[in-house]
From TrEMBL, chain A:
Protein name as annotated: Molybdopterin synthase catalytic subunit
Main enzyme class: transferase
Gene3D superfamilies: Molybdopterin biosynthesis MoaE subunit
Pfam families tied to this protein: MoaE
Taxonomic path: Bacteria, Pseudomonadati, Bacteroidota, Flavobacteriia, Flavobacteriales
Species, as recorded: Cellulophaga baltica
From TrEMBL, chain B:
A GO biological process held by the record: Mo-molybdopterin cofactor biosynthetic process
GO cellular component terms listed in the entry, alphabetical order: molybdopterin adenylyltransferase complex
Keyword entries, A-Z: Nucleotide-binding
Secreted found in the keyword field: no
Protein name: Molybdopterin synthase sulfur carrier subunit
Origin: domain of life: Bacteria
Length: 146, 80
């Protein structure tokens, strides 16, 4: 019960500088031959003529971090990865900004294509994160992953 | 019995926690808890999914609820 899992969450959008630094940090890991990166970006959806301006993320943080941990473990078990990093936003992320950053690395390319899809789909389906789509007129609706 | 609320569940009840009434009877399983919630707040019945987590794990319908458990209502997720 009291186990603390690594915190995946970061307040607000994930910056391109942060992503660039994450890539740079891997230059010393020379066994890696292939990286694959997924970036979730807040899309401007139009629902009943209302335009999405931002998504405000909240989470059951304790359970979400545990689920992220389990997704990581399951992925490492299934694929030959050298490393994996996951970052998810909390709070408001404006349209066009990045809210999810998943980074997998392996000696070989074929592995990273499959592993990345596996990780992202599992995150979307299992992790208790909740996105509230805030429209330009400040009304909102809760998003549901399809 | 106290349950934690997230996402739209928090909006439906209007709080981040909810004390499930002990009358007529304490729900003893996930299924019973869901039934109580739908009766008290019919909007739960309209969601595309409604999961219950016990101690940070998704629980099956027939799972038993204990007073020491951390119980949470998990409406449809939308991470990423």
């Amino acid at each position: 019960m009291s186990t603390t899992y690594k915190n995946v969450f970061t307040q607000g959008a994930i910056s391109s500088e942060f992503i660039a630094q994450a890539i740079a940090k891997h230059q010393s890991k020379t066994a890696i031959g292939a990286h694959n990166i997924f970036l979730g970006q807040v899309r401007v959806d139009t629902i009943d003529e209302k335009v999405v301006a931002a998504i405000e993320y909240s989470a059951y943080e304790e359970m979400a971090n545990k689920k992220f941990h389990e997704v990581r473990e399951a992925t490492f078990e299934k694929f030959d990865l050298t490393c994996m990093h996951i970052y998810h936003s909390l709070g408001a992320v404006k349209a066009g900004e990045i809210c999810l950053f998943v980074f997998v690395s392996s000696p070989r390319r074929k592995v990273v294509f499959k592993a990345l899809e596996y990780v992202v789909e599992k995150i979307k389906a299992e992790v208790p994160v909740f996105g509230k789509e805030i429209f330009e007129d400040e009304s909102y609706q809760w998003k549901v992953n399809s | 019995m106290k349950v934690l609320l997230f996402g739209i569940a928090k909006d439906i009840i209007g709080a981040s926690e909810f004390e499930v009434p002990a009358q007529p009877k304490h729900p003893s399983t996930v299924k019973e808890l869901k039934d109580v919630l739908v009766v008290l707040f019919p909007e739960f019945g309209t969601l595309s999914s409604l999961a219950i987590a016990i101690n940070s794990e998704y629980a099956e319908e027939n799972a038993l609820l204990h007073s020491t458990d951390e119980i949470a209502i998990i409406p449809p997720v939308s991470g990423g």
